[in-house]
């Protein structure tokens, strides 16, 4: 039997990514799936069967029906980005809490419409940046705290990549390369994580300038397949973040953060190599030994175990916030909407820099 604080989720759409969150909702101790909707009843029924959803889950052949279901507390929206604003606003207006896949929207104007609808209706918003909910991220964050005795010091340089090899089928038919569905391409699908990580490393302080590099690759429809960009923060702690994202390279999910006193490195920051544990390494006070033939210290490796997958931890946190609003009259947390909006602002700045011929864009 579900706990009294269980949050009942409805899922809009049966995209492949929805399978992952359906599993996460099932694993989260305070979440349950109560409805699934697709544009066809047959597709929704097939999704429910393939994912072993219980017979109690209501199945709908259109999105409007799930919006009218009074039992649904929150909706998960894994639809193409071009549809986020329509259905997230609709959900919020129906007093349903919203968790949406990243990128959250096509631009900050669309995202503001979503956030305004959520705020005016008193519902929680969160995007699907699951890596932020992994306990490894909290451990790494301790090294960024200037008040910590193990702080790597003020951050000066950030390097991140999110790349993946794709097939010709993907490059021709996947929704992420279709301008009418996901016009941001790799900038939205992959760079969202790297921009998000760079902001995280800087305590969510927006960069001073954003500059896209001219090595961008687009498909025939103009959708970005590969991109490199640079974020810069001015004084008092000048920082540069270099980001490379691509549908055309071997898989990488690197994150390196270098400060005045040390550095930390992660090779799998978006999706850990293992679901039940993750690691990172950090180095303090590194110097070259005499004749520069080695280092005086080796990186220290930190292993962090987690009982639930990071996606289930994300669902658990979202459901906790929803239950607090629903059952205790709390206000929705502003933390997650603010993180999403700052990430979207930088995405917009990268896009604008490209439109200006890779000139710096001030924020």
Automatic annotation (TrEMBL):
Alphabetical list of InterPro entries matching this protein: Gfo/Idh/MocA-like_OxRdtase_N, GFO_IDH_MocA-like_dom, NAD(P)-bd_dom_sf
Superkingdom of this protein's organism: Eukaryota
Chain coiled-coil ranges: none
Ranges for domain GFO/IDH/MocA-like oxidoreductase: 146-264
Domain Gfo/Idh/MocA-like oxidoreductase N-terminal residue range list: 7-126
Pfam families associated with the record: GFO_IDH_MocA, GFO_IDH_MocA_C3
One annotated GO molecular function: nucleotide binding
Family according to the record: Belongs to the Gfo/Idh/MocA family.
PANTHER family assigned to the protein according to its UniProt record, in alphabetical order: NAD(P)-BINDING ROSSMANN-FOLD SUPERFAMILY PROTEIN (PTHR46368:SF5), PTHR46368
This protein's name: Gfo/Idh/MocA-like oxidoreductase N-terminal domain-containing protein
Protein species of origin: Pisum sativum
Source species taxonomy: Eukaryota, Viridiplantae, Streptophyta, Embryophyta, Tracheophyta
